[in-house]
TrEMBL record:
Transcription found in the keyword field: yes
InterPro entries: RNA_pol_sigma-70-like, RNA_pol_sigma-70_dom, RNA_pol_sigma-E_actinobac, RNA_pol_sigma70_r2, RNA_pol_sigma70_r4_t2, RNA_pol_sigma_r2, RNA_pol_sigma_r3/r4-like, WH-like_DNA-bd_sf
GO biological process: DNA-templated transcription initiation
Keywords attached to this entry: DNA-binding, Sigma factor, Transcription, Transcription regulation
Organism classification: Bacteria, Bacillati, Actinomycetota, Actinomycetes, Pseudonocardiales
Family label: Belongs to the sigma-70 factor family. ECF subfamily.
Domain RNA polymerase sigma factor 70 region 4 type: 104-156
CDD domains given in the database record: Sigma70_r4
Listed name of the protein: RNA polymerase sigma-70 factor (Sigma-E family)
A GO MF term: DNA binding
UniProt cross-references to NCBIfam families, sorted A to Z: SigE-fam_strep, sigma70-ECF
UniProt source species: Herbihabitans rhizosphaerae
Chain ranges of the RNA polymerase sigma-70 region domain: 12-76
Length: 173
């Protein structure tokens, strides 16, 4: 029973962060909930191995990102489509920063970049992870992360044009 208690305590504490990260990856609160549910289910199945990890948060974040990327690869036909409109659920609280219009503009633009670029951008800039850790999370080289990040930022700049001065120029460091 101790194992289940540790798992429950960990998930309860990290759930808001996991949900916010999933929302930033997919842009839909319902899909974010599904991604988080699948990730924490997988975490439960591998809880012993997860506890032995050097960095449990990084291990769980990797499960979450891979769950998102795997979902993106699935064929559209295999997705369940509900008819009617689901009940509205509140959007996860946004971190302090730009105004609502700018946040929505950036969120919409972020949804139009490829899933791997989006994952790299979210992990690098919103989760504030170093290149090496993003590479480990995505299962690719550091050079690939830099490329995904640079190409993602270029795509965002192209979409936003003059509407967002912070992205108007400069390069990713």
């Amino acid at each position: 029973m101790r194992r289940d208690e540790q798992y429950s305590e960990y998930v309860s504490e990290r759930l808001p962060t996991l949900r916010r990260t999933a929302y930033l990856l997919c842009g839909d609160s319902h899909r974010a909930d599904d991604i988080v549910q699948a990730a924490i289910t997988r975490l439960y199945l591998h809880w012993r191995k997860a506890q032995a990890a050097d960095n449990l948060d990084a291990y769980v974040r990797r499960i979450l990102v891979r769950t998102f990327l795997n979902e993106q690869r699935r064929a559209w036909i295999s997705r369940v489509r509900l008819t009617g409109r689901p009940a509205e659920t509140p959007t996860p609280p946004a971190p302090p920063g730009p105004d609502i219009e700018t946040q929505e503009l950036l969120r919409a633009a972020l949804q139009r970049v490829s899933p791997r670029q989006r994952a790299a951008l979210v992990l690098r800039f919103l989760c504030d992870l170093p290149v090496a850790e993003v590479a480990a999370q995505l299962g690719c080289s550091e050079g690939n992360v830099k490329s995904l990040t640079a190409n993602g930022l270029t795509a965002l700049r192209r979409q936003l044009g003059d509407r967002h001065p912070a992205l108007a120029g400069g390069s990713e460091s």
